[in-house]
Specification:
437 residues; mainly beta; Immunoglobulin-like; three-stranded mixed β-sheet; three-stranded antiparallel β-sheet; 2 helices; 24 strands; elongated
Length: 437
């Protein structure tokens, strides 16, 4: 009798512990109200450091003005989530860092469209609208990573000009791993496939018949062909905008700037480029983008690496004078004085470290002076780095800092040249490290 009584006590205690453990791991409810003015076709919810996962709308639609309660499978200590919703009108709505333990009810409205809420975000395009009357489509395809490297992005499209979203989303595919991609919403059979690994190397496959092949193996044999990249911005040196610059100084010119005469205080981008310089006795043909048939007279400015020695030419008609030469007699002490004190570390003064905190790879990064809002963005600052993946850092050169120009605008583009980031009035004189988020 005593043994049976003790057994019942132990059984009751174990039941309490089990129930208590279940409570610790229980789902967290989140009630979403659709205040967007249109029906939602997809809702994704994830912890802030996790992938989006599956569409939480099991029936594929949340009507405008209606609500739905989701049971989020989160660890007991995790409360903060991100929310992404999509409408049938190809609009996305984003909310970041929502504490569902404190805020169990949430309204999605037009203020959250394309990340216009509390934080700047990345536009995420995920097609979830069903396509009717499809006569032929590939269904699902299995990708096998046999490259020996982690694949971070995969694009599959029937045309190179429009790649669409990264098929891996926020996830990656380790080497010797497989991933099933749902292409049931696509039309046709022939597709191009592009993959990007952890080192930024590209793997390309042409004209894959995915109606007949349901398995694609990505190996090192597919690496290196960049035919899928958008055509690079052509730097054509037209006769009208080209000027030959001769270095007649006794030292190397590291930076070369021009400005329209009379436009005091504003200098354009370095015409020698991030890695360029002009040794003593050498010459180089450069392109002056503002040089037209109606804008001819310019000032030219050359500096050494430290920016403490400056040579000036003023009021030069570059429409008629297609070759100019800097000489030692052109040293301008007043201009040299302006550049002193920018940074005593010389070449470190014009370098800025940038870290990508977005959930999307930046393929092209542009920087321009803030007071030149209508001007050209110039070339891609990533250059040989090709792309800037999430959480990756890169050091770029901003030679304009030697002119004591501090405020800049920054723009990031995706693979299809769509703008995914725009930050204005960044002070590079005060901040040499920038987080893009």
């Amino acid at each position: 009798m005593k043994a049976r009584f003790l057994f019942q006590i132990l059984l009751w205690a174990s039941t309490v512990v089990a129930v208590k453990g279940q409570e610790t791991a229980s789902d967290k409810p989140l009630t979403l109200h659709n205040g967007t003015g249109s029906d939602l076709t997809a809702v994704y919810v994830s912890a802030s450091d996790a992938a989006w996962g599956e569409n939480q709308l099991r029936n594929g639609r949340l009507q405008k003005g209606k609500s739905v309660t989701l049971l989020l499978k989160l660890p007991g200590t995790v409360c903060t989530v991100d929310v992404l919703a999509e409408s049938g009108q190809n609009k996305s709505f984003q909310l970041w860092e929502i504490n569902v333990c404190v805020v169990p009810e949430l309204e999605i409205n037009q203020e959250h469209e394309k990340g216009l809420g509390s934080q700047p975000t990345v536009e995420v395009m995920i097609s979830s609208t069903p396509i009717d009357d499809i006569k032929e489509n590939p269904g699902t395809v299995t990708l096998l990573n046999r490259t020996g490297f982690t694949i971070e992005e995969v694009y599959i499209s029937d045309e190179i000009a429009s790649w669409g979203p990264d098929r891996l989303g926020d996830e990656t595919m380790n080497t010797d791993r497989d991933r099933v991609i749902d292409l049931s919403g696509e039309r046709g059979c022939l597709f191009f496939i592009r993959a990007l690994d952890e080192d930024g190397d590209v793997y390309s496959l042409r004209n894959q018949d995915l109606c007949k092949k349901n398995e694609i193996i990505i190996t090192l044999d597919e690496m290196g062909e960049n035919f899928l990249d958008p055509p690079p911005m052509m730097e054509i040196e037209t006769e009208g905008s080209s000027v030959e610059v001769q270095n007649g100084l006794s030292e190397t010119v590291s930076y070369l700037f021009t400005r329209v005469s009379g436009k005091e205080g504003f200098w354009g981008e370095d015409l020698l480029g991030e890695e360029g310089s002009l040794a003593s006795g050498d010459s180089k043909i450069v392109s002056v983008s503002e040089l037209t048939t109606t804008t001819c007279v310019f000032d030219l400015k050359a500096t050494n690496l430290e920016g403490n020695r400056v040579w000036m030419m003023r009021d030069i008609d570059l429409c008629t004078q297609k070759k100019v030469e800097f000489t030692d007699e052109m040293l301008d002490n007043s201009e040299a004085q302006e550049t002193e004190g920018v940074d005593s570390e010389g070449e470190v003064a014009n370098k800025v470290e940038i870290e990508n905190r977005l959930r999307q790879t930046i393929f092209y990064l542009h920087v321009r002076q803030h007071d030149n809002e209508d001007g050209d963005w110039g070339g891609d600052r990533l250059q040989e780095d090709n792309a800037l993946s999430p959480r990756e850092r890169v050091e770029i050169v901003v030679p304009e800092l030697y002119n004591r120009v501090c405020l800049y605008d920054i723009r990031g583009l995706d693979l299809e040249d769509r703008e995914i980031l725009l930050i204005q009035r960044v002070d590079f004189c005060a901040n040499k490290t920038l987080l893009l988020k």
